[in-house]
Specification:
Elements (H helix, E strand, L loop, with lengths): L1 E6 L2 E6 L7 H8 L21 E4 L2 E4 L10 E3 L6 E3 L2 E2 L2 H8 L14 H4 L13 H4 L5 H12 L3 H11 L1 H8 L10 H14 L3
Parallel strand pairs: 1-5
Antiparallel strand pairs: 1-2, 3-4, 3-5, 6-7
Helix pairs in contact: 5-6, 5-8, 6-8, 7-8
């Protein structure tokens, strides 16, 4: 099977054994031809989110999603590329550290179960206009929604409003999650509803 990988010096065509294979396994196999091909991976089990790449422009988990012949694998758009498929994820980490709400401990109920599936793969961030403007990300709001569910509701809503939730997010509604969290229904809309209840 032949596929393309986008590298800094242009696309490279790679051939790996035919068969049903994950993106990550194809990249590992391709390192026999291109030993310096750079990409990230960790758990190989859909838990760490570090292997996220773009395949034909769509965000995919390398350890889970399958690769087909002729597809193009590239780095996550919206992030500075360090090398090949490795992007600089530090800006998201900095934005999350700046969120002024820390969730309470031990008060969550079943409502958090779905939101707890976030693996920080950053697939939701690539097209986010708030991230592009340096103001926040869907991951930021997911953490704020967790804080709200765990008893820090007014502080979480205040932080969400300050970051621009009532402006950009109300209009964009383009969040998509690779692990099945319904970001609009479970995160954005509830925070918008709570913000609209503020005096």
């Amino acid at each position: 099977m032949t596929f393309l990988v986008l590298r800094a010096n242009g696309p490279v065509e790679l051939t790996v054994p035919d068969g049903d294979t994950t993106i990550l396994q194809a990249l590992l196999d391709a390192q026999e031809q291109v030993p310096d091909l750079a990409f990230r991976y960790g758990c190989r089990n859909e838990r760490c989110g570090t292997c996220t790449v773009e395949v034909d422009g769509q965000r995919r988990l390398g350890c889970r999603d399958r690769l087909r012949a002729g597809q193009v694998v590239g780095p996550l758009s919206g992030f500075p590329v360090i090398k090949d498929l490795v992007v600089d994820r530090s800006r998201v980490a900095e934005q999350l550290r700046s969120v002024p709400v820390r969730p309470a401990v031990g008060t969550a109920d079943g409502a958090w179960a779905s939101l707890g599936r976030c693996i920080d793969c950053l697939a939701c961030v690539a097209d986010c206009p708030l991230f592009a403007a340096g103001r926040g990300t869907p991951v930021t709001f997911l953490k704020l929604q967790r804080a709200a569910l765990e008893g820090a509701r007014s502080e979480a809503v205040d932080a969400a409003v300050a970051l621009g939730l009532t402006d950009a997010c109300a209009d964009c509604r383009g969040c998509r999650c690779s692990v099945g969290i319904r970001l609009i229904d479970e995160v954005i809309d509830p925070l918008l509803d709570a913000a609209s209840d503020l005096p």
